[in-house]
Known about the structure:
Radius of gyration: 18 Å
Number of domains: 2
Helix content: 40-55%
Order of helices and strands: EHEHEHEHEHEEEEHHHEE
CATH architecture of the largest domain: 3-Layer(aba) Sandwich
Distance between the termini: 23 Å
Structural class: alpha/beta
Strand order of the largest sheet: 2-1-3-4-5
CATH topology of the largest domain: Rossmann fold
Amino acid sequence: MRILVVEDDRDLNRQLVTACRDAGYAVDAAFDGEEGHFLGDTEPYDAVILDIGLPKMDGLSVLEAWRRDGRLVPVLLLTARDRWSDKVAGIDAGADDYVAKPFHMEEVLARLRALTRRAAGRASNEVEVGRVRLDVKAGRLTVDGNPIKLTSHEFRLMQYLMLHVDKVISRTELVEHLYDQDFDRDSNTIEVFVGRLRKKMGIDLIETVRGLGYRIASGK
Length: 220
């Protein structure tokens, strides 16, 4: 899963990026509204953490512009604790949730998980397909109850496929959602990761759809 952090406070931006990467997300960062708006307009993020008080273009204007253009990416708004009006304005502008500063990083991560779950039509942090269970919160994959040790990229790939069960996902879409902007993207690495996952799990859960991509079928 790939997210965008738009926060002009560089220390807080760095903390958010570090926490999200440690939680298994691919993360891009922007430090003003114009940069954030451009990235959100041109890159396919699974969620955005967006501060209201941004230079060049404030967060509400960024959010309103995305919604006008039909961008449906889930947005978690960062607001000031004593400005209830900002929260109301943010929700009216199209925010999916908000958290007030100062906040605990665990709350931000929990709200991010909730946003990405809802976007995928899921109510739980756990996804189960046949003998395989994925726990998004714990960052754990098990087969028949046995934990499978995965790299961060392997887990992201498995998470994306399982959150979109029964849907054929192209290599291009996987690359766009698994890697941050600075990563040297090569769609051939997706085949490598799929091969490793199949070997580690010991079951043929990930189906190759010739010429289209990959799919995990709910009937497996």
